[in-house]
């Protein structure tokens, strides 16, 4: 990953799931207890079965060019009552941040990473936690997911793919390991991201990111 790429992704992590409009409603400020962190790290570092382990840089400005990409269009997480439309998003050219859909009941798939058909890498979906004007976001209860919970991501090919949660972690936005969560190598996995931790009223944003990792079930 180049320094330019890391800079862009760092800005994305800082802005992911945070509305630019002034007002966010404080969600639970107590840090979520991390579970499965070691397994999440193993998934990121291990090559998929039958595939070598060359690291592929995350590039913010180019789509993967290796065949048909299947974008997720719908996300279902029964445990936390989520049924959300998934939009393909990139980086906002003006703010250099992850361009999460403005409607808090929708979530965004990072279209410069792997699609649902990929046999390697991290499929990243990010969503808002909440908004003072719109209320609770699709990922308001993301921090409640636990190991073993299941979810379904449906692609634009109509196929519903089932995943199982293996990890839930919370990081300061300045400390999130971007190489791990936006990688195109390692075992196939789904990465869900939102904001969490204490809310800074002056800066009008949350301090942390909540990251949930799920694997094909």
UniProtKB/TrEMBL annotation:
Keyword set, alphabetical order: Hydrolase, Signal
Short name of any one Pfam family annotated for the protein: Sortase
Keyword check for Hydrolase: yes
Signal peptide: 1-23
CDD domains with a match to the protein in the record: Sortase_F
Keyword Cell cycle in annotation: no
InterPro entries: Sortase (IPR005754), Sortase_dom-sf (IPR023365), Sortase_F (IPR042001)
Lineage top rank: taxon: Bacteria
The protein, known as: Class F sortase
Organism: Micromonospora vulcania
Lineage: Bacteria, Bacillati, Actinomycetota, Actinomycetes, Micromonosporales
